[in-house]
Amino acid sequence: MKTRRDNVAGVKLPAFESYQDGTDSYEFAGLARGGQQLAKLKKNYARAIQLLVELASLQTSFITLDEVIKVTNRRVNALEHVVIPKIERTLDYIISELDEAEREEFYRLKKIQEKKKKIRDRAEAVKAEKKALGLLPDDDVDVPNILSDQHDEDLLF
Question: In this structure, what DSSP letter does residue 152 have?
Fold first, then answer.
């Protein structure tokens, strides 16, 4: 019997082959009577051995494939029930944190706009008050100069 390894879908399976060494030592046995029966028996025996070796090869291949399939199923189950849900929970957490940060940023911007509006309203009220008292001329129109170095400062609270 000879053994070899077959690669089936990345799995190395053992394969057995039967062979016969040398010559038949009983080649001339039964020349008088029964030679045909003995030859027929030897032929059937060789065929039976060949079938047994083939059957053993298939059986070991099936056992090996069964073990590989079990291992693969365990890995698939681990991916489906452990790894993928963990990644999904992580993604959900990240998305919720990003949404919360976006809401905080929106709230902060609204507060800054509100403070700027209050400051602008106060400045206009002071200006209107000065005009009413006559401290400022009526034709003075406050137009902002784009080229001036003045800029709108950021407000932090």
Answer: P
Give the separation between CA 122 and CA 116, rounded to whole angstroms. 10
CA 114 – CA 111 distance, rounded (Å)? 5
Per-residue pLDDT reduced to its tens digit, 62-94 = 898 899 999 999 999 999 999 999 999 999 999
- How many CB atoms lie under 10 A from the CB of residue 39? 15
3-state secondary structure of 102: helix
Tell me the domain boundaries of the chain: 2-101
In terms of pTM, does the model score above 0.85?
no
Kind and range of the H or E run holding 98: helix 84-133
Angle at 21 between CA 15 and CA 23, to 5 degrees: 150
